[in-house]
UniProtKB/TrEMBL annotation:
InterPro entries with a match to the protein in the record: NAD(P)-bd_dom_sf, ODC_Mu_crystall, ODC_N
Native organism: Alkalilimnicola ehrlichii
Regions annotated as coiled coil: none
Protein name (Swiss-Prot/TrEMBL): Ornithine cyclodeaminase
Length: 361
Protein backbone atom coordinates (compact mmCIF):
# COMPACT_ATOMS: atom_id res chain seq x y z
CA UNK A 1 0.00 0.00 0.00
CA UNK A 2 1.32 3.44 -0.94
CA UNK A 3 2.18 5.91 1.82
CA UNK A 4 2.24 9.66 2.14
CA UNK A 5 5.35 11.85 1.93
CA UNK A 6 6.76 13.27 5.17
CA UNK A 7 7.58 16.97 4.82
CA UNK A 8 9.97 18.65 7.26
CA UNK A 9 9.65 22.43 6.89
CA UNK A 10 11.98 25.12 8.20
CA UNK A 11 9.78 25.37 11.30
CA UNK A 12 10.11 21.62 11.82
CA UNK A 13 13.90 21.87 11.57
CA UNK A 14 13.81 24.67 14.18
CA UNK A 15 11.71 22.44 16.46
CA UNK A 16 14.23 19.61 16.09
CA UNK A 17 17.14 21.91 16.99
CA UNK A 18 15.26 23.28 20.00
CA UNK A 19 14.19 19.85 21.23
CA UNK A 20 17.48 18.01 20.79
CA UNK A 21 19.95 20.87 21.27
CA UNK A 22 22.79 21.95 19.00
CA UNK A 23 25.46 19.93 20.81
CA UNK A 24 23.52 16.68 20.95
CA UNK A 25 22.49 17.02 17.32
CA UNK A 26 26.06 17.62 16.19
CA UNK A 27 27.30 14.72 18.31
CA UNK A 28 24.73 12.42 16.69
CA UNK A 29 25.76 13.43 13.16
CA UNK A 30 29.48 13.04 13.94
CA UNK A 31 28.92 9.59 15.45
CA UNK A 32 26.66 8.38 12.67
CA UNK A 33 28.98 9.72 9.93
CA UNK A 34 31.96 7.96 11.48
CA UNK A 35 30.00 4.72 11.78
CA UNK A 36 28.41 4.97 8.33
CA UNK A 37 31.66 5.77 6.56
CA UNK A 38 33.45 2.90 8.27
CA UNK A 39 30.81 0.50 6.92
CA UNK A 40 30.58 1.95 3.40
CA UNK A 41 31.56 -0.37 0.57
CA UNK A 42 30.72 -0.87 -3.09
CA UNK A 43 28.54 -3.88 -2.34
CA UNK A 44 26.10 -2.01 -0.08
CA UNK A 45 26.17 1.56 -1.32
CA UNK A 46 26.66 3.63 -4.44
CA UNK A 47 27.55 7.33 -4.45
CA UNK A 48 28.28 8.74 -7.91
CA UNK A 49 30.09 12.04 -8.19
CA UNK A 50 27.65 14.94 -8.28
CA UNK A 51 26.66 16.59 -11.52
CA UNK A 52 25.05 19.90 -12.43
CA UNK A 53 25.32 23.05 -14.46
CA UNK A 54 26.17 26.74 -14.23
CA UNK A 55 23.04 28.85 -14.13
CA UNK A 56 21.65 32.33 -13.52
CA UNK A 57 23.24 35.74 -13.76
CA UNK A 58 25.91 34.85 -11.21
CA UNK A 59 28.80 33.41 -13.23
CA UNK A 60 29.91 31.34 -10.25
CA UNK A 61 26.42 30.02 -9.54
CA UNK A 62 25.74 26.32 -10.01
CA UNK A 63 22.91 23.92 -9.35
CA UNK A 64 23.90 20.32 -8.72
CA UNK A 65 22.27 17.01 -7.90
CA UNK A 66 23.88 14.56 -5.49
CA UNK A 67 22.58 10.96 -5.37
CA UNK A 68 23.24 8.11 -2.96
CA UNK A 69 21.84 4.57 -3.09
CA UNK A 70 21.93 2.48 0.07
CA UNK A 71 21.16 -1.01 -1.20
CA UNK A 72 17.89 -2.33 0.20
CA UNK A 73 17.35 0.74 2.39
CA UNK A 74 16.71 3.86 0.35
CA UNK A 75 17.90 6.43 -2.16
CA UNK A 76 18.73 10.00 -1.20
CA UNK A 77 18.99 12.78 -3.76
CA UNK A 78 19.95 16.33 -2.84
CA UNK A 79 19.63 19.26 -5.19
CA UNK A 80 21.93 22.03 -4.04
CA UNK A 81 22.61 25.50 -5.43
CA UNK A 82 25.75 27.52 -4.81
CA UNK A 83 25.20 31.26 -5.32
CA UNK A 84 27.92 33.49 -3.78
CA UNK A 85 25.90 36.67 -4.36
CA UNK A 86 22.92 35.46 -2.32
CA UNK A 87 23.83 36.91 1.11
CA UNK A 88 24.59 40.44 -0.13
CA UNK A 89 22.06 40.71 -2.97
CA UNK A 90 19.11 38.59 -1.86
CA UNK A 91 19.54 38.14 1.86
CA UNK A 92 19.64 34.38 1.33
CA UNK A 93 22.24 31.72 2.17
CA UNK A 94 25.04 31.03 -0.30
CA UNK A 95 24.09 27.35 -0.29
CA UNK A 96 20.43 26.43 -0.75
CA UNK A 97 18.80 23.11 -1.51
CA UNK A 98 16.36 20.34 -0.69
CA UNK A 99 16.86 16.66 0.12
CA UNK A 100 14.54 13.79 -0.84
CA UNK A 101 14.38 10.18 0.28
CA UNK A 102 13.02 7.64 -2.20
CA UNK A 103 11.85 4.08 -1.68
CA UNK A 104 14.18 1.56 -3.33
CA UNK A 105 11.41 -0.76 -4.52
CA UNK A 106 8.59 1.53 -5.64
CA UNK A 107 10.64 4.65 -6.40
CA UNK A 108 8.12 6.86 -4.57
CA UNK A 109 9.10 9.90 -2.52
CA UNK A 110 9.10 9.04 1.20
CA UNK A 111 10.41 12.29 2.69
CA UNK A 112 11.40 15.80 1.63
CA UNK A 113 13.18 18.42 3.67
CA UNK A 114 15.45 21.45 3.67
CA UNK A 115 19.01 20.97 2.50
CA UNK A 116 20.53 24.23 3.82
CA UNK A 117 20.81 23.26 7.48
CA UNK A 118 21.51 19.62 6.66
CA UNK A 119 24.44 20.59 4.39
CA UNK A 120 26.02 22.88 6.97
CA UNK A 121 25.56 20.29 9.72
CA UNK A 122 27.02 17.32 7.86
CA UNK A 123 29.89 19.37 6.38
CA UNK A 124 30.97 20.48 9.84
CA UNK A 125 30.59 16.95 11.15
CA UNK A 126 32.66 15.50 8.28
CA UNK A 127 35.51 17.89 9.10
CA UNK A 128 35.33 16.82 12.74
CA UNK A 129 35.50 13.15 11.74
CA UNK A 130 38.50 13.78 9.47
CA UNK A 131 40.24 16.04 11.97
CA UNK A 132 39.87 13.49 14.76
CA UNK A 133 41.66 10.99 12.52
CA UNK A 134 44.36 13.30 11.12
CA UNK A 135 45.01 16.18 13.55
CA UNK A 136 46.90 16.01 16.82
CA UNK A 137 44.51 15.04 19.65
CA UNK A 138 45.72 17.97 21.76
CA UNK A 139 44.90 20.58 19.10
CA UNK A 140 43.66 23.72 20.85
CA UNK A 141 43.83 26.55 18.29
CA UNK A 142 41.51 26.73 15.30
CA UNK A 143 42.04 29.10 12.36
CA UNK A 144 39.09 29.90 10.13
CA UNK A 145 39.61 31.43 6.69
CA UNK A 146 36.16 32.47 5.57
CA UNK A 147 33.54 33.22 8.22
CA UNK A 148 30.27 32.52 6.43
CA UNK A 149 27.60 30.01 7.39
CA UNK A 150 29.84 26.98 6.90
CA UNK A 151 32.38 28.35 9.39
CA UNK A 152 29.81 28.20 12.20
CA UNK A 153 29.30 24.45 11.96
CA UNK A 154 32.98 23.84 11.20
CA UNK A 155 33.94 25.41 14.51
CA UNK A 156 31.04 23.89 16.42
CA UNK A 157 31.89 20.39 15.23
CA UNK A 158 35.58 20.77 16.10
CA UNK A 159 34.72 21.85 19.65
CA UNK A 160 32.85 18.56 20.10
CA UNK A 161 36.01 16.48 19.51
CA UNK A 162 38.94 18.74 20.51
CA UNK A 163 39.76 20.85 23.58
CA UNK A 164 39.57 24.10 21.60
CA UNK A 165 40.69 27.18 23.53
CA UNK A 166 41.41 29.81 20.90
CA UNK A 167 39.83 30.80 17.57
CA UNK A 168 41.56 32.96 14.94
CA UNK A 169 39.52 34.22 12.00
CA UNK A 170 40.17 35.94 8.69
CA UNK A 171 37.71 37.03 6.02
CA UNK A 172 38.07 39.55 3.20
CA UNK A 173 34.53 40.66 4.15
CA UNK A 174 35.02 42.52 7.43
CA UNK A 175 31.28 42.52 8.17
CA UNK A 176 31.19 38.73 8.08
CA UNK A 177 34.32 38.55 10.21
CA UNK A 178 32.85 40.86 12.85
CA UNK A 179 29.44 39.17 12.97
CA UNK A 180 31.03 35.76 13.38
CA UNK A 181 31.64 36.44 17.06
CA UNK A 182 27.95 36.75 17.79
CA UNK A 183 27.04 33.77 15.60
CA UNK A 184 29.27 31.44 17.64
CA UNK A 185 28.69 33.08 21.01
CA UNK A 186 26.95 29.89 22.16
CA UNK A 187 30.35 28.16 22.15
CA UNK A 188 31.77 30.45 24.83
CA UNK A 189 35.09 30.89 23.02
CA UNK A 190 37.16 33.99 22.43
CA UNK A 191 37.23 34.81 18.72
CA UNK A 192 40.17 36.93 17.50
CA UNK A 193 40.61 38.57 14.11
CA UNK A 194 44.04 37.69 12.73
CA UNK A 195 46.17 38.41 9.70
CA UNK A 196 46.81 35.32 7.58
CA UNK A 197 50.48 34.89 8.61
CA UNK A 198 49.50 35.03 12.30
CA UNK A 199 46.70 32.54 11.71
CA UNK A 200 49.08 30.15 9.95
CA UNK A 201 51.73 30.41 12.66
CA UNK A 202 49.37 29.64 15.52
CA UNK A 203 46.60 27.33 14.31
CA UNK A 204 46.72 23.60 14.95
CA UNK A 205 43.66 23.11 12.73
CA UNK A 206 42.71 25.41 9.84
CA UNK A 207 39.39 25.40 7.99
CA UNK A 208 39.11 27.14 4.64
CA UNK A 209 35.48 27.73 3.65
CA UNK A 210 35.45 30.58 1.18
CA UNK A 211 33.64 31.73 -1.95
CA UNK A 212 36.89 32.35 -3.81
CA UNK A 213 36.28 32.45 -7.55
CA UNK A 214 37.55 30.05 -10.17
CA UNK A 215 41.24 30.72 -10.73
CA UNK A 216 41.42 33.28 -7.93
CA UNK A 217 42.97 31.09 -5.22
CA UNK A 218 44.82 30.24 -3.11
CA UNK A 219 43.40 31.89 0.01
CA UNK A 220 46.45 31.27 2.18
CA UNK A 221 50.15 31.32 1.42
CA UNK A 222 51.05 28.24 3.42
CA UNK A 223 54.52 29.56 4.16
CA UNK A 224 54.23 29.69 7.96
CA UNK A 225 52.13 26.64 8.74
CA UNK A 226 53.05 24.61 11.78
CA UNK A 227 54.63 21.28 10.90
CA UNK A 228 51.77 19.40 12.53
CA UNK A 229 48.94 21.54 11.15
CA UNK A 230 45.80 19.93 9.79
CA UNK A 231 43.69 21.71 7.15
CA UNK A 232 40.05 21.09 6.33
CA UNK A 233 39.68 22.51 2.81
CA UNK A 234 35.92 22.95 2.41
CA UNK A 235 35.39 25.60 -0.25
CA UNK A 236 36.54 23.96 -3.49
CA UNK A 237 33.51 22.70 -5.39
CA UNK A 238 34.11 23.65 -9.03
CA UNK A 239 36.76 22.81 -11.64
CA UNK A 240 39.41 25.52 -11.38
CA UNK A 241 38.35 26.66 -7.90
CA UNK A 242 40.97 25.91 -5.24
CA UNK A 243 41.88 27.35 -1.84
CA UNK A 244 45.31 25.86 -1.10
CA UNK A 245 48.68 26.29 -2.85
CA UNK A 246 49.84 23.23 -4.74
CA UNK A 247 53.10 23.38 -2.76
CA UNK A 248 51.16 22.79 0.46
CA UNK A 249 49.34 19.83 -1.04
CA UNK A 250 52.57 18.31 -2.34
CA UNK A 251 54.11 18.42 1.14
CA UNK A 252 51.04 17.08 2.94
CA UNK A 253 49.11 13.86 3.31
CA UNK A 254 45.97 14.73 1.31
CA UNK A 255 42.85 12.72 2.10
CA UNK A 256 39.76 13.31 -0.05
CA UNK A 257 36.19 12.56 0.94
CA UNK A 258 35.23 11.30 -2.55
CA UNK A 259 38.36 10.74 -4.70
CA UNK A 260 36.68 10.89 -8.12
CA UNK A 261 34.83 14.09 -7.23
CA UNK A 262 37.84 15.67 -5.49
CA UNK A 263 40.09 15.06 -8.49
CA UNK A 264 37.58 16.89 -10.67
CA UNK A 265 36.63 19.85 -8.49
CA UNK A 266 38.40 19.73 -5.11
CA UNK A 267 41.91 20.58 -4.00
CA UNK A 268 42.94 17.23 -5.48
CA UNK A 269 42.46 18.60 -9.00
CA UNK A 270 45.96 20.03 -8.50
CA UNK A 271 47.33 16.50 -7.97
CA UNK A 272 47.25 13.14 -9.70
CA UNK A 273 45.55 10.09 -8.20
CA UNK A 274 48.86 8.52 -7.22
CA UNK A 275 49.58 11.50 -4.93
CA UNK A 276 46.41 11.05 -2.86
CA UNK A 277 46.28 9.55 0.59
CA UNK A 278 43.47 7.33 1.88
CA UNK A 279 39.92 8.62 1.46
CA UNK A 280 37.71 9.42 4.44
CA UNK A 281 35.91 6.06 4.44
CA UNK A 282 39.24 4.22 4.47
CA UNK A 283 40.44 6.36 7.36
CA UNK A 284 37.28 5.53 9.30
CA UNK A 285 37.73 1.81 8.65
CA UNK A 286 41.43 1.90 9.54
CA UNK A 287 42.14 4.80 11.96
CA UNK A 288 45.78 3.78 12.18
CA UNK A 289 46.28 5.15 8.65
CA UNK A 290 45.68 8.66 9.98
CA UNK A 291 47.16 8.22 13.43
CA UNK A 292 50.67 7.73 12.08
CA UNK A 293 50.42 11.10 10.31
CA UNK A 294 49.09 13.20 13.19
CA UNK A 295 52.45 14.91 13.68
CA UNK A 296 52.84 16.06 10.06
CA UNK A 297 50.96 18.39 7.70
CA UNK A 298 47.64 16.86 6.64
CA UNK A 299 44.76 18.03 4.44
CA UNK A 300 41.17 16.84 4.28
CA UNK A 301 39.77 17.67 0.83
CA UNK A 302 36.08 18.08 1.66
CA UNK A 303 34.01 18.40 -1.49
CA UNK A 304 30.91 16.98 0.21
CA UNK A 305 29.20 13.85 -1.12
CA UNK A 306 25.76 12.35 -0.93
CA UNK A 307 26.51 9.53 1.52
CA UNK A 308 26.96 12.28 4.11
CA UNK A 309 23.57 13.71 3.17
CA UNK A 310 21.96 10.27 3.35
CA UNK A 311 23.28 9.69 6.87
CA UNK A 312 22.33 13.17 8.09
CA UNK A 313 18.84 12.77 6.65
CA UNK A 314 18.49 9.45 8.47
CA UNK A 315 19.19 11.22 11.76
CA UNK A 316 16.73 14.05 11.10
CA UNK A 317 13.97 11.65 10.04
CA UNK A 318 14.50 9.45 13.07
CA UNK A 319 14.32 12.41 15.43
CA UNK A 320 11.26 13.78 13.65
CA UNK A 321 9.49 10.45 14.00
CA UNK A 322 10.50 10.10 17.65
CA UNK A 323 9.16 13.57 18.47
CA UNK A 324 6.16 13.51 16.13
CA UNK A 325 7.48 16.39 14.03
CA UNK A 326 6.59 16.93 10.38
CA UNK A 327 3.57 16.86 8.09
CA UNK A 328 2.44 13.88 6.04
CA UNK A 329 0.86 14.80 2.73
CA UNK A 330 -0.08 13.08 -0.50
CA UNK A 331 2.36 14.89 -2.78
CA UNK A 332 2.49 12.36 -5.59
CA UNK A 333 -0.63 11.56 -7.62
CA UNK A 334 -1.77 7.94 -7.19
CA UNK A 335 -5.02 7.37 -9.11
CA UNK A 336 -7.29 4.48 -8.17
CA UNK A 337 -6.53 3.08 -11.61
CA UNK A 338 -2.72 3.25 -11.93
CA UNK A 339 -3.06 2.96 -15.72
CA UNK A 340 -5.28 6.04 -15.98
CA UNK A 341 -3.73 9.42 -15.01
CA UNK A 342 -7.23 10.99 -15.10
CA UNK A 343 -8.76 8.51 -12.66
CA UNK A 344 -9.86 9.73 -9.19
CA UNK A 345 -7.25 9.83 -6.45
CA UNK A 346 -6.61 6.74 -4.36
CA UNK A 347 -5.76 8.86 -1.28
CA UNK A 348 -8.50 7.33 0.82
CA UNK A 349 -6.53 4.13 1.02
CA UNK A 350 -3.16 5.62 1.99
CA UNK A 351 -1.33 4.76 5.19
CA UNK A 352 1.03 6.80 7.34
CA UNK A 353 4.82 6.99 6.74
CA UNK A 354 7.10 4.15 7.68
CA UNK A 355 8.24 4.38 11.30
CA UNK A 356 11.82 5.41 12.04
CA UNK A 357 13.51 4.51 15.30
CA UNK A 358 16.21 6.68 16.90
CA UNK A 359 18.60 5.93 19.73
CA UNK A 360 18.87 9.17 21.68
CA UNK A 361 21.01 7.78 24.49
Amino acid sequence: MMTKTLLLSQDDIARIIAAVGRDRLMDLIIARLSEGLSRADDATSETPARSGFVRGEDAAGVLEWMPHHQVGQGITIKTVAYTPSNPSVRGAPTITGVVGRFDVISGRLEALTDGIFLTALRTGAASAVASRLLARPDSRVVGLIGTGAQAVTQLHALTRVFPIERVLVFDICRAHQESFRSRVEFLGLSVEAAALPELERNADIICTATSVGVGEGPVLAGEELQGHAHINAVGSDLPGKTELPREVLMSALVCPDHPEQALREGECQQLDRASLGPDLASLCRRPELGAKSQGRLTVFDSTGFALEDHIALDVLLEIANDLGIGTSIQLEHFPKDPLNPYAPSASAGLSMPTSFDVAMS
